[in-house]
Every structure is written in structure tokens, then in C-alpha cells.
Amino acid sequence: MDSVAESSKNRKRLREEEEEEQQQEEIEAEETSSTDQTLSLVDSLTFSDTMVAVRIMRAQFPHIDKVSIQPFILHSQLYSSVKDRTQVDRELESLRREKVLRVFKLNTGQDDHAIMFLDDYLIQVDRAVKRMEEKKQCNLEVFEWFKTQVIDNKQDPSIDHQELCLLLSHGGKVKDEHISLLINAGLLTRQLIDPNMYWFAIPNIGSVLKGLSQGRKELLSLLNRQRYKEMMLAPLEKKRLRLSLLDMRFHLRDLIGSGHLKTVNTPTGLLVRVSKD
């Protein structure tokens, strides 16, 4: 009888220890996430590899009240953060093929690409589907086909009409209305050069992209008004942009990576300067 009681006590103690370890891991994870969020750009401009950079930048993505959008990273931002651009492209391609990340061509009028974790993208897709359900749309079955047959089998940023219909047909009989529904939900956009080609798109990103373009102009204008078209990074990072939903840190990474801005090490810290044409 004593051995049964002792065994029960041991099991209880082990369970309590496991619960304590789990709680400690959750606390440490929260602290790491919080640290990533508050880390200044001065302390987190460069990283050793692409995955580390993507994870930190995802954690630092600004909270946007007005728009329901999952965190995304710009390709240019990775170029500002990992010194070897060939390494970035190689590791990004590997992560894309492993279905960890997805890459999207953005409709900004420039050669902009967004990177989003697959899990975040699927959350964004589900939100788009919910909005269409609330509008009492018909043919909603296409969204399940899109998730299970298209997203899972096509990792490229674009897809042609024939391949799209072929993949969707594994779910059911495809109609023109199905394709229109995917476009209206913001999951696909037609390519202007070739109407038979579609870009995969991030739903609900329109207002953020407008702010991206305006924020770029606002930041460059701010620096161009400075006497030597330069400013110390630490005070610059604290400034607020009026025209963009994205924060200064997001825009600085973008413009440094695209080559519009460059950083210079000085005895008093990092300096940000407008690149000469």
C-alpha cells in the first residue's frame, strides 16, 4: 500500500515539475518576443543568416490598428540586414521550397516583394474567406480548394490560368465564378502584361502598400532637407511618419536595403545618409 502511495506522489511531483518547466519556457519565449519587439535598429540592423533576420523582423512588425494584416517582410529589408545578398537569395529560395515562407510580388509600381510565413498567410486567407462568407457569396467551396490544392502545391509567386484551373479541379468542377471570387477576395491579381497569368496576393494589404510608397517619399524628403542629407540613426528611428501605417524602423530597413540610403559608422554611432544618384 505504501509503495502505491509513494508511486502516486512521484507521479504528482513529476507532473508538477513538467508544468513548472513549461511555464518557464512560455515566460522565456514571451521575454524573447518582447526583446525582439523593443530592440532598437542600432542594436539589430544586421544578422548572421536569413531565417534569424526574418524572425526578428516579424517580431518587430508594427502593430496596425486600422488594418487586419499579418506581419510581412520586404525582400529589400533582408538585403539591409544580411551582408551577403547571394546568401539571402539562396536561403530564401530554400525556405520557400520547404513551405516555411511564401514570396509575393507587390503592386507598388516597383520591383517589391513581400515575404510572409506560410502560417501567417493562411491566417490572412481565412480572414478573407470570412469576409466573403459575411457577404453571403456563392461558390465558397473554391476557397477550400485553393488552400488544399493550390497553395500546398504551388510555391511560386505567380501561376497561369491553365495550371490554376487544373489544381482547383482536384477539388471540384471549376467555373469562371470561382476565379472571380478568388480575385475579389484579394487572393489573386491578374498580371497587366499577360491576363492569363496571376500573382498570388496578400488579402487586405492595399492601404498598407499605399502607406509604404508614401512613407518612402516622406522619409527621403526628411533627410534631403537636412544640411548634409544625413542624420544619426538613433534619433531618426524615433521620429514618426505621418503618411504611413508602417513605422520608421520598417522604412529605414527598406530604403537601406534598396540602396536609397546608406549607413556610415562614426565615433558617435551609426549615421544614415541619402545615397548619391
TrEMBL record:
User: What spans are recorded as compositionally biased (Acidic residues)?
Assistant: 17-33
Q: Which InterPro entries match?
A: STK19-like
Q: Where is this region: Disordered?
A: 1-37
* Organism domain of life: Eukaryota
Which Pfam families does this UniProt record tie to the protein? Stk19 (PF10494)
Q: Name the protein family.
A: Belongs to the STK19 family.
> What's this protein's name?
Serine/threonine-protein kinase 19
Q: Which organism is it from?
A: Salix brachista
- Taxonomic lineage: Eukaryota, Viridiplantae, Streptophyta, Embryophyta, Tracheophyta
